[in-house]
Description:
CATH topology of the largest domain: Nucleotidyltransferase, domain 5
Bound molecules: zinc ion
Largest sheet: 5 strands, mixed
CATH architecture of the largest domain: 2-Layer Sandwich
Shape: globular
CATH class of the largest domain: Alpha Beta
Strand order of the largest sheet: 5-4-3-6-10
Structural class: alpha/beta
Number of helices: 12
Strand content: 15-25%
Amino acid sequence: MEYAPATPERTERLDAARTSGDLRAHNRVQLLRAIHDSGARRTRSQLTHDLDLARGTASVLIGSLAADALIAESPVEDARPVRGRPTLVPGPHPDGPQVLAADLREDAWELAVCSIGGGYEILGGQAHDGTPEEALRPLAAAARAATSGRVVGIGLAVAGPVRDGVVDISHLGWQDVRVPEFFDVSVPLIVGNDARLAGVAEARRGRLQGVAVGLHLHIDFDPGGTLLLDGRPMAGSSGTAGEFGHMPLASRSLDEPCLCGAWGCWSLRVGANALLRHAGLAAGGGRGRALAERILASDGEAVAENARALGEGVAALVNALDPGVVSLSGMGVELLARARDEIEAAYLDGLMAFRRSAPPPIAPSSLGRAGPLIGAMESAFDAFLTPSGLQAWRELRGFGLV
Ligand SMILES: [Zn+2]
């Protein structure tokens, strides 16, 4: 299933809703989304102001969301009561909707259950041998076991390009793996690329919040990323945009092609595979994470080379795409902490002169390694937070028609 975030076009269509029933359904979605996006930390009166609602309308909408077990209000603990009444904050209902989110990396997976507001609890995880069977069967079984009546969708981040649920992970040898066929579940399954989902997470809850044009790079075994325009990731015509690791930013003198099939890929110089390769070790197969982390901690020439190549590539991307901020997640956070000077020197050298007086900052992710998991959660909630999603929840819960 295609990952389809709320878009301005969709919002405009909804604004044009003609019947009062449509308008009410639209307002319910907008309010529930605002509660979710704010991390369930805005008070009832703040939300009323944010959404420019009349107080009476907000009160009716909150009442209807609460009656549907979509939210519950609780008093703010440290706030002063207004005229003797506690300040109320709408948040997740104890029996409310949940989504499952999973991060499928090259060597392990992790599964979480998530609530409105973005809170999540890790249910479990497992290492795997890199084959689709060993990676996906146990994950799908764990997801099936966790799919209670409250679960309205599953978001899955995978470490490779995704076309309509079909996944390639070149350095694992995965080609045309049909991920949904492994999942026998009755709720929507949304499969997305991990680096892009990490960028979505940064835009919603991290370093790129409020940034109009943001570039996010997620560095794990290979680098990947996404360009975010007003928080929306650029998907490309086949859904596979953002494979920045496979731009020919590495020297042609490297005498082997990238595992993706192209020559001179940036992936040959940046990321865990590049650290292993620089140390003369075999790279690929999703093996060697712990070893790559030890090489990174050693601060040796392999780290300096990774840092220079990162700075060069970021400069090329900034010259081409003109973002306001560049955020880094995954291994990029530690690389930035250890070798910021090397990264920034190569970055400035590679920038066009007119950009050098005010280069976009390179900033570490504020979500750390949880980015792909949080982005997977957001993709599943995006699919649910629609008028039809909320209506289906009502019917499922036996509340009947609005
Ligand atoms: Zn490549």
